Amino acid sequence: MKTTVVDLFASALHLHPDGDVRAVERQMTSSTSKTWQIATFHVETDADVHADHWEMHPEAEEAVCCLTGGVRLYFRPDTPGGTEDMVRLQAGTAVVVPRGRWHRLELETPSALMSITLRHGTRLDKRADAH
Predict the structure, then answer these.
(1) Distance between CA atoms of residues 118 and 121, nearest Å
(2) Tens digit of pLDDT for each residue in 38-66?
(3) How many Cβ atoms from other residues are within 10 Å of residue 34's Cβ?
(4) In terms of C-beta density within 10 A (0-12 exposed, 13-18 middle, 19 or more buried), how is residue 48 classed?
(5) What's the CA angle centered on 57, arms 54 and 63, to 5 degrees?
(6) Given CA atoms 88, 126, 50, 34 in this order, what sign does their dihedral have?
(7) Contact 46, 23 (CB under 8 A)
(8) pTM of the predicted model, to two decimals?
């Protein structure tokens, strides 16, 4: 087997049920693949993390990891008119987003983030209060 160095900021890693790990083109939207994806990315602005949209993964939890910088992760209220729950992530911290829970990110500073989830069925929903 040939050993290959993978640029994690240009590619994603897919973890297959048969134990294979493959470097692939990073895809942050829904996928037809039933593989887990590890994606690492540099983000400079809220637009880079689609802060104007809620995101939800119906088939798996998601580990959102802050490698450098700082972000705020918001959870959509469970009831209309409720308040958003917020978790602050600093460098070296992570949070596990429950399966099926709508969430979004906002940056505190430019950051390097890592996402680990099963992207199959991922949904986005435009925030009604987005600017």
Answers:
(1) 8
(2) 999 999 999 999 899 999 999 999 999 99
(3) 14
(4) middle
(5) 95
(6) positive
(7) no
(8) 0.90
